[in-house]
Amino acid sequence: MKKKKSGSIAIPFLLTFLISLIIIGGIAMIIYDKIDSESSSLLTMTNEAGALSDSDSHTILFVLDLSDSIDDSEDEEEEEDTDEESSEDEETYDWEETGDDEEKEVKAEPYTFMIMRSMPVHKQIVFIGLPDNMLAGQQNKSLTEIYESGGGADVKAAAEFSLEIPIDRYMVFDSESFQKLCNIMGGVNFAVPGNIEGFKKSDGLQYLSPDQIEKIVSYGGFGGGEIQRISTAASLITAMTNQTSGARIADNLDNTFEVMVNATDTDISALDYQQEKYAVKFLMKYSDPNDDETVSDRAKFITPSGTQTSDKFILDTSFIDDIAQYFVVETTSPQQEETLQPMIPETEAQSDAE
């Protein structure tokens, strides 16, 4: 009887063992890759969030300039009045005095000035409306005078000087670009104050279209004068900012920037946008309300305090002190600054070094 060779048993056993290792190792590699991928994504999100600080806060001066559209409408009214007068017989026309009970025509204010302070790390926005007759700048002129002589750049410098705050950029809207922005935001549900012609007399909320928003923001017939107008405007813009979908705005931010920067007069550059894009997206997306809330509280507004006369508004120094808290940029140590920077995965760092 022949004795079996030990090699005839060992070889099949080794082949079976190797095949098992290959199969098990492949499955383990797939699972590891999946875990590693999820960890990398989580690491990236954490690093990006960690990169935000008070230094990402920025301030923009908004100007709504309706002077062209108001001038055009006034010219049309004058032409209509001229045509009516020419058709009347002056010898037989019965001139009547206007009664005191006749309602005065309310004209739109041509300029609206507003500051937006954006603080992404705190997920908060503050709007500050500025009366158009507020004295500002080294020459102590009204904002209207400053704007008409030097435009948005001069108003930005004057507001910086008088409010003692940094204002990074400015953006000037006309009627078309402002209504385009309101469309992007999605309009607003707002309790319209007073008896403004063309609006329902109701204490409740009513949906406002872009042209209605513009009419209220520029309405010149408020009993409280310019300070009530600018406070109402800031309140309305705040409500629209809180009611919009932050996630939707964040997802379409690239397109929105391109549309608005081409439709307005602004000193905001493409480089500015690239530097602040993530911070703005973070603010809007992560300030959306929870499921049990109806609107966000990402935005608030502040009304300036001061002395109002018939033709000018003088700012209180206490107001300057009150708003200073929103413009403080905390300094960080070199060690803290390093932790705020996005971390580079070790494999990428090695490849860069090579």
Number of strands: 12
Classify the secondary structure makeup into a structural class.
Answer: alpha+beta
Strand order of the largest sheet: 9-6-1-2-3-10
How much helical structure, as a percent, in the residues? Answer: 40-55%
Instruction: Tell me the distance between the termini.
Output: 66 Å
Unreliably modeled segments: 38-50, 86-102, 332-354
Give the helix tally.
12
Encode the helix/strand succession as letters: HEHEEEEHEHEEHHHHEHEEEHHH
Radius of gyration, in angstroms, nearest whole number: 31 Å
Shape: globular
* Beta content: 5-15%
Q: What would the average pLDDT be, to the nearest integer?
A: 80
- How many strands, what sense, and barrel or not for the largest sheet? 6 strands, mixed
Describe this structure in words.
This protein has 354 residues and is an alpha+beta fold. Helices cover 51% and strands 14% of the residues. The protein has twelve helices and twelve strands. The protein has helices at residues 7-50, 67-87, 143-163, 175-185, 210-217, 225-243, 246-251, 253-263, 270-285, 317-323, 334-340, 346-353, and strands at residues 58-65, 111-119, 124-130, 135-136, 141-142, 169-173, 188-190, 206-208, 265-266, 299-302, 306-308, 313-315. The strands form four sheets. It has a six-stranded mixed beta sheet, with helices on both faces. A hairpin with a 4-residue loop joins strand 11 (306-308) and strand 12 (313-315). The chain is globular and about 105 Å long. The relative contact order is 0.14.
